[in-house]
């Protein structure tokens, strides 16, 4: 559904707000994934405070999903990928290098290819299998909890389930679309790599070292008691 915009400034604000959801989803998804991958190598650190880490994993996953759901929202008034693409289709003049928009910084800016627009539009519509499942989960499990699903154990969360790979596919699809049109409109794109992303490793390694030092101290103390017993 095309959103009503009066000028390039309004389109730029719309692009920024959608980027907040898409880039935010990618950041939380990456951190959630990297934390999961760290479990085998930092099992001791994770085991020291399982309640905290359980809530941390859940918080990042919920933050990720809430942003991804907004990006793929199909409501005609929502700021979403599908409505962004429809708006672009009706406002191709915004991408002309002589349009006078203050957002264009690339002299080579040009209008999007209609074929590419159509392909992108199809990839964020409910006719796409992954998008269809994401929307079904949003409406029945996440944004709204379907009471009948719970009462009668319909299992909609399994029927429309998405794997981590599926969610990564949808996330990268959203980032690709966003950056394609940001690049054409402004000559710049968004990074999904947050400064300080690896800070979680500092925490895990510190807990790991502290736990190992404590274990070593306990072992030394035990050995000392055993040595005293032998001497006696």
Characterise this structure.
- The protein has 232 residues and is an all-alpha fold.
- It has one domain (8-197).
- The chain has ten helices and no strands.
- α1 (8-38) runs antiparallel to α3, α1 runs antiparallel to α9 and α4 packs antiparallel against α5.
Brief description of this entry?
By secondary structure, the protein is mostly helical. The chain has helices at 8-38, 43-48, 50-71, 81-89, 114-123, 129-142, 147-151, 156-159, 164-186, 199-231. It has one domain.
Present the secondary structure layout.
Elements (H helix, E strand, L loop, with lengths): L7 H31 L4 H6 L1 H22 L9 H9 L24 H10 L5 H14 L4 H5 L4 H4 L4 H23 L12 H33 L1
Helix pairs in contact: 1-3, 1-9, 4-5
List low-pLDDT spans. 100-106
Q: Strand-residue fraction?
A: under 5%
Helix content: 55-70%
Rounded to the nearest angstrom, the distance between the terminal CA atoms is 87 Å
Query: What's the number of domains?
Result: 1
Report on the biggest sheet.
Answer: none
Order of helices and strands: HHHHHHHHHH
Q: Please state the CA-atom Rg, rounded to the nearest Å.
A: 25 Å
